[in-house]
Structure formats: C-alpha cells, structure tokens
Amino acid sequence: MNSLPRRFFSIVKALSIWTYLKLASTAMAFAAFSEDWRSYFDSANTAHAVKFLSPLLMVVPLYLLLRGRLSLPLQGYGPPSAPDRADRVAVALILATPFAAFLPSVDSLADASLMEGRGFGAIAASLLAIASLAIFEELIFRVALMGLLLRAGLPAVAVLLIQAALFVMSHGSAPYVAPESLLRYSAGALTLGGLYLVSRTLWAPILLHISVNLLLAQGMPAAYWIALPLAESTQRNWFHGCTRSFIAIGACWCAWRLFHRRAAGSTAFYNRAPWMTPSPRWRTPRPIRATPSPARAARSANSPMN
After folding, report:
1. CA 243, CA 94: separation in Å to the nearest integer?
2. 238-248 burial by CB neighbour count: b if 16+ within 10 A, else e?
3. pLDDT tens digits for range 69-93
4. Integer Cα distance of 256 and 251 in angstroms
5. Which of 6, 11, 97, 138 is the least crowded, having the fewest Cβ atoms under 10 Å away?
6. CB atoms closer than 10 angstroms to residue 275
7. Which of 4-8, 132-136, 139-143, 209-213 has the lowest mean pLDDT?
8. Distances from the Cα of 262 to the Cαs of 16, 89, 217, 223, 255, in angstroms?
9. 69 or 191: which carries more pLDDT confidence?
10. 192 exposed, middle or buried (CB, 10 Å; 0-12, 13-18, 19+)?
11. What is the rounded distance in angstroms from the CA atom of residue 197 to the CA atom of residue 256?
12. CA-CA distance, 288 to 18, in Å (whole number)?
C-alpha cells in the first residue's frame, strides 16, 4: 500500500521537474528568437544560423548537468538493455522510411541556375537551423520527459503515450487542422519515442527528426529554410505513406516482441519499475527441499503404506 503513494509522488515530481526544464528551455528560445541578430552580423546567413543555434547552446549545458537524472534506466522497462538484431532492423527501416517515401513523390528538381546562385552559406544556415530545432525538441521530449517518467516507475507504454500527447499539444493548432494532421503528429511522436527506447541512443530519433523536417521543408515554405529547396515540386501527400509505414513497422516489431517473449520466456516486459527484481515471483523456480517438511514427514509416517 505504501508503494502506490510513493510512485504517485515520484511521477508528480518527475512531471514538475520536466515542466521547469520545459519552461526554462522555452524562455531561452524565446529570448534568442526575439533578439535582432542581424545587427551583430553582416551576413544574413550567419545571423539566421545563430538565431537557431543559440537556444541549443544555452540548453545543452543544463541537460549535461542533469544527465544522470535524465538517462534511461539500465533495466526495469520494456526492451532489453542491449538492442538485438530485430531491434536494429526496425531502427534501420524507420530511419530509411522518410527517404523511401519522399523520393518517388518528387516531380521535378530545382533549376540548375537557381542552385548555383544559392550559395553554400544559405544551405549551411538552413541545415543548421533544421538540426538545431530537432535536437532542441529531442532533448525536451525524449531525454528529459521520458527519462524522468521511466525513472519514476511508469510503464514504457504509458511513457510513450504521455510524451506523444505533450509533443502534439506543444505544436499549437497545427495538429488539429485535420484528422490526417493529428494522425501524422501522433504517429511521428510515438515513432520518435519508440526509436529512443529501442535503440537506447538519442542519435537515432535525432536523425529521424532531422530527416523528416528536411524533407518537409522541400515541399512547403518554412521559417527556418533560408535557402531555396532542392525539389521544385513535390506531391504534398508523401508523408501519409510515411506515417502508414511507421505504424506498420511498429506493429510488426511489437508482434515480434510478443512472440519472442512467449517463445523464450523473456521477463523484460514484466519489469515495469526500476526497483522491481529482474525475475518476477511467478517465473522464479521453487527451491528443492533437501529434507521434507515436518508436516509432510508426519503424513508419510501415518500413511497406510508404512
């Protein structure tokens, strides 16, 4: 009975710490974006890159100081401590899915003369802005939120759902424009969170986030894209196929994990909280008694066979 209130207060404490980190990070980003960086630099590309890079440079030291509190626990939740072959295959398929869905949707590339006049500085500034925003969001929602909730004792499924809901709500009204938008944002958040759990490294969701933002910027105007996109015209619905692929890969991975757990008797999915023992009671074999118990010895002595 005492573990339930303790777990509840641990979850409340984790959410309070994350709210503080989220507000501090948002305040730093707002201060960086409201600054007129063009007055400090002669180059517009440099000012554009610094505007997006400065919030990340201010936030990263804060997360490095709290790395011990935010890192994933070694055990106590869903996947095992080290990815196996099925996990690596799923991670590789998910990372390749955006490019596999985008390339067939390209109708025509940008004109060669426009590409020559664009300049390396504009391309570098645009790529740096895209990467900075992706890393900034991954630090907030995957490292901070998921690490705190998992260490508070929440199951991995609940952590995935909570971080997906907060990730969708943080994007304002964009996910609620249409049901397809809500499905796209929800599937993306669940995929990023699952990728972080399965790969146990932050670089996998960062690469996926950067890839998706980079490809989305090719077909629609974006504030962080100062250079002209490489693709002149694309089909706008390419990400619908990408979303369906994310869902299919995740469903296949879950089915494989359930089958593998039943076949091999794995206990990884049962260890919900970090303080639980690696083997639950019902999967621990009973020790064999060297001598019979007194009650059994008495029954054996009074047996009619003796």
Report:
1. 10
2. bbebbbebbee
3. 777 775 545 554 556 788 888 999 9
4. 9
5. 6
6. 11
7. 4-8
8. 38, 21, 43, 49, 11
9. 191
10. buried
11. 16
12. 48
What is the token pair recorded at 253?
Answer: 């991975």
Contacting residues for 278 by C-beta, under 8 A, at least 6 apart: 75, 267, 271
Alpha-carbon distance 166 to 189, whole Å? 9
Tell me if residue 264 falls in helix, strand or coil: helix
DSSP 285: P
Q: How far is residue 101 CA from its own chain's centroid?
A: 21
Kindly state the percentage of the chain with pLDDT values over 70: 71
Query: What's the mean pLDDT in 169-173?
Result: 83
> In sequence order, what are the beta bridge partners of 109?
231
pLDDT of residue 95: 93
* Nearest Cα to Cα of residue 292 among 284, 281, 303, 282: 303
Band the pLDDT of 267: cuts 50, 70, 90: very low
Query: Which residues have CB under 8 Å from 266's CB, separation 6+?
Result: 80, 260
Burial of residue 230 (number of CB atoms within 10 Å: 0-12, 13-18, 19+): middle
Beta strands in 188-268 (DSSP E): 231-234
- Chain position carrying tokens 């639980």: 276
Given a cut of 50, whether residue 283 has pLDDT beyond it is no
- Contact call for residues 102 and 217 (beta carbons, < 8 A): no
240: tokens are 């619908």
Give the separation between CA 134 and CA 56, rounded to whole angstroms: 10
Q: Return d(Cα 276, Cα 306) in angstroms, integer.
A: 47
Query: What pLDDT score does 56 carry?
Result: 84
User: Among candidates 118, 122, 96, 120, which has minimal Cα distance to 109?
Assistant: 118
- E strands along the chain, which residues? 106-109, 231-234
